[in-house]
Specification:
The complex is a heterodimer of chains A (667) and B (138). Chain A folds into five domains: 130 residues, Rossmann fold; 176 residues, FAD/NAD(P)-binding domain (3-Layer(bba) Sandwich), CATH 3.50.50.60; 76 residues, no CATH class; 166 residues, 3-Layer(bba) Sandwich (FAD/NAD(P)-binding domain), CATH 3.50.50; 57 residues, 2-Layer Sandwich (Alpha-Beta Plaits). Chain A has 18 helices and 34 strands. In chain A, strand 8 and strand 9 form a beta hairpin. The radius of gyration of chain A is 32 Å and the shape is elongated. Chain A starts with 8 loop residues before the first strand and ends in a 6-residue tail after the last helix. Chain B has a four-stranded parallel beta sheet, with helices on both faces. Chain B has five helices and four strands, in the order βαβαβααβα. The relative contact order of chain B is 0.25. Chain B has a domain of 96 residues. Helices cover 38% and strands 17% of the residues of chain B. With 138 residues, chain B is an alpha/beta fold. Classes of the chains: A alpha/beta (667), B alpha/beta (138). At the A-B interface, helix 4, helix 5, helix 17 and helix 18 of A face helix 1, strand 2, helix 2 and helix 3 of B.
Amino acid sequence: MTDPPKRKVGVFICHCGGNIADVVDVNRLREYAAQQGDVEVATDFRFMCSNEGKTRLQREVKERGLNGAVVACCTPKLYEDMFRETAGDAGMNPYLLEIANVREQCSFVHRQEPEKATEKAMSLVKAQVEKVRNLRPLEVKTAPIHPGVAVVGGGIAGIHAAILLADLGHKVTLIEKSPTIGGNMARFDKTFPTLDCAMCTLSPKMDEAYNHPNIALMTYAEVRAAVRTPGKFTLTVEKKPRYVTDACIGCDRCTERCPISTAKSPIQADSEWDLGIAKRKAIYRPFSSALPPIWTIDADHCFYFQRNKACRVCASVCPTHAIDFTMQPERVSVEVGAVVLATGYQLFDAAQIPQYGMRKYPDVYDGLQVERMLASNGPTRGKVVRKDGTPPKSVAIIHCVGSRDRNYKEYCSKVCCMYSLKFAHLIHERTGARVYNFYIDLRVGGKGYEEFYQRLAAEGIRFVRGKVEEVTDRAKAPEEEGKLVVVAEDTLVGSVLRVPVDMVVLSPAMVPSAIDDLLASLHVDKTPDGFVKEYHPKISPTETAVKGVYVAGCAQAPKDITETIAQAGAAAMSAAVFLGSGEMSLNPLVAEVDPALCRACDRCTEVCEFDAVRVDPDGLVAVIDETACEGCGKCTVVCPTGAISVRQFKKSQIVAAIDALAPGAVP
Amino acid sequence: MTFEPRIATFCCNWCGYSAADQAGATKLPYPTGVRIVRLMCTGMMDPFYVLRAFERGFDGVMVIGCHPGSCHYKSGNLQAKEQLGRLAGVLRALGLGEERVLMDAASAPEGARFAMLANDFVERVRQLGPSPLREAAP
């Protein structure tokens, strides 16, 4: 080990008005600091953070050629970055400046003991001087940022973000796991509170994304892995085989002739798009305006695949020979500089609450099934009917199914009150049925939302405040025969109600899509509820802790379409600013390896939470990925040879501080 | 002269250090013998630093990180707990005992908790008396 190079250190003591100087004897502190090893100058000033204070610091750096500085002031959380930048502008390496926290850790907490506080301030300054003497200048490396961006999820959030980024000139890869873009919104008939036609507002945006020259669409595709290198994410995307090529012209002849739905067929495919309330054939497109307009074969239900190539009807009727049974899953690599997660939500499976009768009674539906029933392009063409085809005369809508419930999901799914009201209105309008809303609290905050609720109340929709105990077909009175009976306590009246109805609609919690593997691969965290963890829930709701990864829509938390659009715009903006900077600075305070000491024992790789260190098999030495390393230093403790260290927190640097703080270090 | 315990206090940047800042911002007093060394994470808390602190005459060592499950780096606090646990035998053999080392947690807004931990620990060490190694310290 060579001795650290000779330093010229400046110590700058801030009075912080009187916050520090009224307690700590700054004259004594300055005189003491001036006597410390390598200290070239020690000075004090009323406000170091003022322009004048910063100018003083810069002047000393320049005139004395300082290559080390300690500012004794408030917590480094406030001005460490600023003082480093100030010193850097004057020509000193910014990482040779340290803060001695003599306000929060000294004058603020030892106001009754000025003598001892002064002695402590001296030791805090000494500790930082000793640390600075052991620091090395650090270089901030930069890496060019790949200009492309991947948007994962082709619902309204992903579509909106993708269009904005593409309009800004970025090459966008929009990755969607289902055969079409559109997401859950494409299932809706009307949107609250304006009752706009959902597809009328969504379709143009789907078209724009589909036709945009800067958007490459990858549908029926899923991200399987992500590798982060400086300024770049390399995504491995698996394209599932559609068995239909781009030659498809959307004529529908294949679906017409597909034999799956014949009476003899044992195979029945539930339409995913209609959430099981309708069947579909083995070759299909989810809905009429699906994009891309290319059909898909469901191999699990196709006779060609299931019955040893027994059937090739679709291939024989296809006018463009677009059917290709030999297609295989394909893995492609997509390189981008930023990733927007717009993976949306699914509904909590209401059958997990057995007393509500989901999948037990045929006329119990969940929210998305009712959306499909209400939709003009749905299986009933917008008619609200029971399984037997007759319109219901009475309908119960049960709010908070699985949400706001400690047994299932504690959080409020936020949109269910409003869509339940929307259902109530549409069902009442189309059938004249008596509609009951069973709610815990009505949460209708939003522009025009309360007004919508008032409108419904005026329409004669019934509201019962109380949690539903069960839905049952066991009649206890003649009027309950043949009905579903909703048993609930009306908490406003204080009595238990039994309400016989023809149809029950459950409004379940929104839960995140199954993206755990993707998040793990990107090193993006989840919040305890399973949604993507944002960098800061209040002020950075679209960023994640991983630089270059952004989040929009219900992937982050339940929200309505208005908020989703707003957040998608914000996420696109954040991503664009990041990409537009062209290069990213890498935090220099990360781990580094002394190859001469490393024995390639792999202990560092075992404890690393960020896959930031690997053992290079050729050199038999640990190698740090500086873009992935967060600088936590776990590896430094388990390294048996001391080969690995975190810059600015090396053992010698920490020990220098410990020694300076020890009793007797300050006479 | 009364015995003023000197405590080497290792705080992670995200929780312990911020909690100490919060104690300062709300002017919650604790003894001046508490001296803080800032680490990015308690995951970088090498047990060696504990021994170094005692060798240099400190009377106690406190390590304040994030609460379990809240580590900024996922699991650094858990590793610290494990690493410090390995010191127990050494501390006994040195005649210091385990009582002089505390690992605990205080989240960023928990200034009051930091002050409480500091006050309680200083009091504990005061009861134990000066470190037997203090006299030998340089």
